[in-house]
Amino acid sequence: MTTSPATTTRTRRRGDAGVPDGPDILCDNLVRIYRAEGLEVVALQGLDLEVQRGELVALVGASGSGKSTLLGILSGLDTPSAGLARVSGHDLGSMAGRERLEYRRRTVGFLFQQAAANLLPYLTAAENVELPMLLAGVRAGERATRARQTLEVLGIPDCADRRPGQLSGGQQQRVALGVAVANRPRVLLADEPTGELDTRSSDEVFEAIRLANTEFGTTVLVVTHDPLVSEQVARTVGIRDGRTSTEVLRRDEVGADGAVGRVAEEYAVLDRAGRLQLPKAFTASLEMRDRVRLGLEPDHIAVWPTGQPDGAGERGADGSGEERR
Ligand code: ADP
Ligand code: MG
Q1: What's the predicted TM-score (pTM) here?
Q2: Which domain holds residue 320?
């Protein structure tokens, strides 16, 4: 599922872009502990994640599983307690003041649930999109051209000269997306960007996110509760108790009847240390707990509950398949 650590730590420079090769987002054993009034909350407990350049990945998980904490770290607002978080070659644990500012200005863009609330009400949509470019020192002519182009790609060219108050919720959120990608960040982080919208607006916003991904080549990590959104992406990562636990990969396949169908396959995540979380339904049905027996077969690994009557689970713990037969 993941590439070897050797490829991810490579920092070969790519021409004048000055951006290292390897995944755009890399988390290795990432930990974030909140300390408040003597209490400790381990929000991220050794999370591993890789997102390759140009990917659009949905992140799903129950409330409190650590999704916003992860995005806070990746956006450079918060820092890890331990472990590695790297985005487009920037090490988020060690990044200092000036680099952090530049990182937030140019490398990542963010879109949050109430992003539309951050639009300046007295500026038009186009002027709002120009603002981050102004802060990044882009000159006036270029700003205006790029703002129009951005709104066009996101499907709202007709909103350019209107103020936020004259736009629908979905249009506002798409303008906010325009602000997020104004400086053409390498990575877009979106935390439940469609959470407060009706289905139709939510579809439009997600379509705009998808366009930013394909047209600008922006790598996207989007947190969503919306199954309709997660079902549309090629890869969904599930997070549970501060760790990545499952992945669903989807691809289009041509069936026997010639029709194209979507195939979705769910995988358990195998982390860098070789840890695997077994689904509760599986372990419960075989009454597995505390410890299990493992056996290496030619093309798979077998897992048995301990204490089986025929003793199948009592041997072969050294990984040899022979003894059990
Ligand atoms: P999610 O976005 O998946 O709902 P969060 O990342 O917001 O989850 O929260 C993960 C855990 O960390 C939760 O248990 C939450 O209560 C806790 N948490 C989040 N932010 C803070 C904070 N600033 N101080 C203390 N605990 C926090
Ligand atoms: Mg959250």
Answers
A1: 0.84
A2: 284-325
